[in-house]
Design a protein that fits this description.
Helices cover 36% and strands 16% of the residues. It has 197 residues and is α+β, with helices and mostly antiparallel strands. It has a single domain (5-196), classed as L-fuculose-1-phosphate Aldolase (3-Layer(aba) Sandwich). A six-stranded antiparallel sheet has the order 3-2-1-4-6-5, with helices on both faces. Strand 5 and strand 6 (168-173) form a beta hairpin. Helix 2 (75-88) packs parallel to helix 5 (146-156). The model has no long low-confidence stretch (mean pLDDT 94).
């Protein structure tokens, strides 16, 4: 028996919360079923440890995001990334996962020692075979803004993941399992780097 996509979205958010990849109200995930006219996204300002299918919003592409109640303020970058992939292959499923993993975010630096997330390749060359990381998005782009959404969608094009300085990461793929696996792989390697420093 296959688990419904809404259940998968809830499960990955709960798993991220339980493994400390997000705090209680942080992070979000979206899903586009190839060929459809809408996408699902987790509701904003809801406790991720109590997420259920009622907290998954169906967002029609034809509707303005600011008219949708309880939508996440970060839904704009989800929509832009999904639309990019839709233009390339509208029949392909797309999942966008946004998290705030501690070691990965720390690896990129907070106030000083800024570092591109793809610098992990320097220490762990085998990562190039597993996760294609684009250029970081500057911390000057604030959450929920058009500038952040545009920079994320630009930097993640032809990549699996981008780092958001002082914020977290965004990963894109074709399934919930794929994006969650890649997010965990990067956090594991960032943790190895962090433990030795």
């Amino acid at each position: 028996m296959t688990i419904s996509i809404k259940k998968q979205l809830c499960n990955v958010m709960k798993d991220m919360y339980n493994k400390q990849f997000i705090s209680l109200y942080d992070g979000n995930v979206s899903f586009y079923k190839g060929g459809s006219n809408s996408f699902y996204i987790t509701q904003g300002s809801v406790k991720k440890n109590n997420l259920n299918s009622n907290h998954i919003i169906d967002v029609p592409f034809s509707k303005s995001l600011d008219t949708i109640p309880n939508i996440s303020r970060e839904s704009l970058f989800h929509k832009l990334i999904i639309c990019q992939h839709r233009e390339l292959n509208h029949l392909q499923d797309v999942v966008v996962l946004h998290s705030h993993p501690i070691y990965t975010t720390s690896f990129m630096g907070l106030e000083r020692n800024k570092c591109q997330l793809n610098m992990l390749y320097h220490y762990f060359p085998e990562l190039k075979q597993r996760v294609h990381i684009g250029k970081n998005v500057s911390h000057t782009c604030l959450p929920g803004t058009l500038s952040l959404a545009e920079d994320i969608s630009k930097n993640i094009l032809n990549h699996d993941m981008v780092g958001l300085e002082n914020h977290g990461i965004v990963c894109v793929g074709e399934s919930v399992e794929e994006v969650w696996d890649k997010t965990q792989i990067i956090e594991y390697h960032a943790k190895m780097f962090g433990v030795q420093n």
